Amino acid sequence: MAKDKIIAAPANKGGKTKKKKWGTSKIKEKLNNVTTIDQKMYDRLIKDGPTMNMITISTFSDRFKVSGSIGRQAMRELLSKGLIERVGEFNSSNPIYHGLQVKVKSEDDGKKGKKGKKEKKGGD
């Protein structure tokens, strides 16, 4: 009789568990960068390229939405025209350039936002 009264323990003590789904992952959007340039894009590269403070292949392709090979060719073109200068290099395949037409903030611009002490109103 004792064997008849034994109650089986429930299989899921912690509640119901859901089956894992492996298909849900974050997918990065594919970049739709230009692989060939026309005269309008070329003029934009020549005009806006030298105004960038730091120029690498990555920053150039991100800003102008061009492929890396187009960015490298454009940087060589700007360097040959004397519009940018080489600052340093991460390694031989990733050079770092600096535009020569960058607008530099002067120290006087930073002092505009400071306020002086306020005078108290009212008499003694």
How many helical stretches? 4
H/E series, N to C? HHHEEH
Q: How is the biggest beta sheet arranged?
A: 2 strands, antiparallel
Q: Order of strands side by side in the largest beta sheet?
A: 1-2
Q: Which radius of gyration do the C-alpha atoms yield?
A: 32 Å
Question: Roughly how much helix do the residues carry, as a percent range?
Answer: 25-40%
Structural class: alpha+beta
Q: What does the overall shape look like? A: extended
Number-wise, the strands total 2
- Strand fraction band? 5-15%
The unreliable regions are none
Cα distance spanning the termini: 102 Å
| Global mean pLDDT | 77
Overview of the molecule:
By secondary structure, this protein is α+β, with helices and mostly antiparallel strands. It has helices spanning 39-48, 57-64, 68-81, 107-110; strands at residues 84-91, 94-99. It has a two-stranded antiparallel sheet. α2 (57-64) packs across α3 (68-81). The longest helix has 14 residues, at 68-81. It is extended. The model has no long low-confidence stretch (mean pLDDT 77).
Secondary-structure blueprint:
Layout: H1 39-48, H2 57-64, H3 68-81, E1 84-91, E2 94-99, H4 107-110
Top keywords for this entry?
11% strand, alpha+beta, 124 residues, 4 helices, two-stranded antiparallel sheet, 2 strands
